[in-house]
Design a protein that fits this description.
The chain has helices at about 110-120, 160-170, 230-235; strands at about 1-10, 20, 20-25, 30, 35-40, 55-60, 65-70, 80, 90-95, 100-105, 125, 155-160, 180-185, 195-200, 205-210, 240, 245-250, 260, 265-270. It has about 270 residues and is mainly β. The protein folds into two domains: about 1-30 and about 135-270, PK beta-barrel domain-like (M1 Pyruvate Kinase, Domain 3); about 35-125, no CATH class. β9 and β10 form a beta hairpin.
Length: about 270
């Protein structure tokens, strides 16, 4: 049997994630996942690739606020309203992997906080519900949209895949190196690569593209320090062409309202 063992959201792209027991499913991904993002003066997205210290900024959700707080510092968290008055916010175009997206900018007090912590002039933006950023049409079906995530609305990873990797490493790594949304137990290592899709309850999902991994996986999410693993080991047996694969990018084919919960059963089906 396959079942969900973990659900994760990452409200601000490339900051710390939040483990949740359940989450609403939306066309752009799990609710609140990567709906906020830090950009530089040119409006280009900023991630741990350039700023590993972003890993040290944790996030938490309250009923009306998103909280951000630096690891190990005893200070009041930064509070960001989940539903700000968008009419009062400046509209800007931002860049995510070449996609130009209409966004709303938060006030200077919030931007100055991030700039001071990370040592770079940054602005925090949010993706309004009216923004439609298309998922990569080379792989995703028509009519699929994505938040500020790299390319697709959901990332699936199997616990067996991580266990297989960890058996090859001198120092085992946690799943947070791969920043998935849905972690499942059951099946064999990397079995998700061959899934054409899967159902969770009556909700259909489709696997569209194995996830090519980048240098973010080499950043310790507890310390912000960078090392060679896991890409060094993965490259020896998970490299196809010039891409190192771990996890499966996924889209949701359902409609209406859906909730995913830890413990839900997955029913996969394989592609040709």
């Amino acid at each position: 049997m396959y079942s969900i063992s973990e659900l994760w959201i990452y409200p601000i792209k490339s900051l710390g994630g939040i483990s949740v027991s359940e989450s609403k499913v939306e066309i752009k991904g799990l609710q609140h996942d990567r709906r906020w993002m830090l950009v530089d003066g040119a409006g280009r997205f900023v991630t741990q690739r350039e700023r590993p210290a972003m890993a040290l900024l944790r996030t938490a959700l309250e009923p009306s606020d998103l909280l951000v707080f630096p690891t190990g510092k005893q200070s009041e968290p930064l509070r960001i309203p989940l539903a700000p008055e968008e009419d009062t916010m400046e509209r800007v175009m931002v860049d995510v992997w070449g996609d130009r997206c209409a966004s709303k900018v938060f006030p200077d007090s919030i931007n100055d906080w991030f700039s001071g912590i990370l040592g770079q002039s940054l602005r925090l933006v949010m993706m309004p519900n009216t923004t439609r950023r298309r998922a990569d049409g080379r792989y995703a079906p028509k009519g699929q949209y994505v938040s500020f995530a790299d390319g697709f609305p959901f990332l699936l990873a199997g616990q067996s895949s991580l266990d297989d990797l960890n058996r090859r490493l001198l120092q085992p790594l946690p799943m947070n190196r791969f920043r998935p949304n849905i972690v499942f137990t059951g099946g064999g290592p990397f079995e998700e690569d061959g899934w054409e899709g899967f159902d969770i309850g009556d909700q259909p999902f489709r696997g569209v593209k194995p996830c090519a991994r980048c240098v973010v996986t080499t950043i310790d999410q507890a310390t912000g320090e960078r090392a060679a693993e896991p890409l060094k080991t993965l490259s020896a047996y998970r490299k196809i062409g010039n891409k190192i694969r771990f996890g499966q990018n996924v889209v949701w084919l359902g409609e209406g309202t859906a909730i995913l919960r830890v413990g839900d059963v997955l029913r996969p089906y394989d592609g040709p």
